[in-house]
Amino acid sequence: MMARSVVHSKSCCSAFAFRASAVETRPGRVRIPDKARDARVLVLGGTGRVGGSTALALSKLSPDLRIVVGGRNREKGDSMVATLGKNSAFAQVNIDDMVSLERALADVDLVVHTAGPFQQAQNCNVLEAAIATKTAYVDVCDDTRYALLAKSFNDKAAAANISAITTGGIYPGVSNVMAAELVRAAKDESKGEPEKLRFYYYTAGTGGAGPTILATSFLLLGEEVVAYRKGEKIKLKPYSGGLNIDFGKGIGKRDVFLLNLPEVKSAHEILGVPTVSARFGTAPFFWNWGMSAMTNLLPPEYLQDRSKVQELVRQFDPIVRVIDGIAGERVSMRVDLECSDGRHAVAIFTHRRLSVSVGYSTAAFVLAILEGSSKPGVWFPEEVRTLP
Ligand SMILES: NC(=O)c1ccc[n+]([C@@H]2O[C@H](COP(=O)([O-])OP(=O)(O)OC[C@H]3O[C@@H](n4cnc5c(N)ncnc54)[C@H](OP(=O)(O)O)[C@@H]3O)[C@@H](O)[C@H]2O)c1
Fold this sequence. Notes:
By secondary structure, the chain is of the alpha/beta class. It has two domains: 14-171 and 358-379, Rossmann fold; 174-354, 2-Layer Sandwich (Dihydrodipicolinate Reductase, domain 2), CATH 3.30.360. Helix content is 39%, strand content 22%. Helix 5 (125-132) links the parallel strand 4 and strand 5. The two termini are 36 Å apart. The structure holds NADP nicotinamide-adenine-dinucleotide phosphate. Residues 44-45, 47-51, 71-73, 76, 93-96, 114-118, 140, 142, 169-173, 209-213, 216, 358 line the site of NADP nicotinamide-adenine-dinucleotide phosphate.
């Protein structure tokens, strides 16, 4: 078990009080109120890596939940249902088809949306269907534009009396809660004002994720990076600004580079920190070179085109899988907060398998909603306030 930092928050992000069990290899069970114990949870993309891992984590943490695996491919769905065992079923859903979506959502209590990529998506179909059918919602979005579009449905979600969380995965997701916890601790101790917040992420290979994450990474290389310096929004080149960061035991020092990630904006606006940025690095080292070369050699318009990127993924995927077998899938998140009095606080989360920890992270957000810790509306992870 390598989960070294477990976030347990009490104030601004109490809805997401992550239990140690939520990231352990052999997790305990989570007690949720009787009325939600056998809730029906639809996991869209449940035949993929992140969705499948979320479904497995939910069934382990709360075995009475009824899990519906949603996807386009029945064969993959049946195989996932066989892994999950009793209390699970498959629903054939295409998220681009509103009729099939609303049909699938008609009979569930909460929908988890993991059917990315979220980059360059033209709408928030799943959230809109959730609001129309009064179904609670969590997504693992990792795209700034999509997250802001989701947030724009806040009033509609509140009017429909449903709770929705956007960017509720591991990073973004748990990393936002780590940042909120550092800011809360700094303010509680009144030792100066939070000034600089930096998110650093490391994942070996693709972290055992599916082809969609590869598409996500390529699409992100086509986006200018938004960061904040002393309150000013600045735009930077993707995969530039390399730093060598120490992720501690099990990971060591790794090179990380700027990427455009939604937690930068949400942390800046919600936590009120004037300087914020996010960097990511992978292994083996030549993948970092490859990402940097793609940014320099391919025009941004090419990297913003979903169909061209999907084609690129088809060509790269077999090589990536072979190298994944050697690289492993360790994941580490380090969040640094500097305050005006010179205080420097660091939070680190490390796990040997991204594909497992992303599922438990997402499941924690799902369980937070089911246990009634979140108010109606659309929320970023660091945003939900203590219920009265
Ligand atoms: N926030 C975070 O911490 C975090 C971390 C990792 C990944 N992610 C995001 O999670 C997403 C999924 O990654 P992954 O590695 O799980 O990818 P994956 O293994 O390729 O899975 C994607 C799943 O989505 C389903 N899907 C795709 N298009 C669909 C459609 N139109 N309708 C219904 N289902 C559809 C696919 O099923 P069928 O093809 O069978 O329909 C598949 O099961 C990515 O966007 C990634 O960026 C977020």
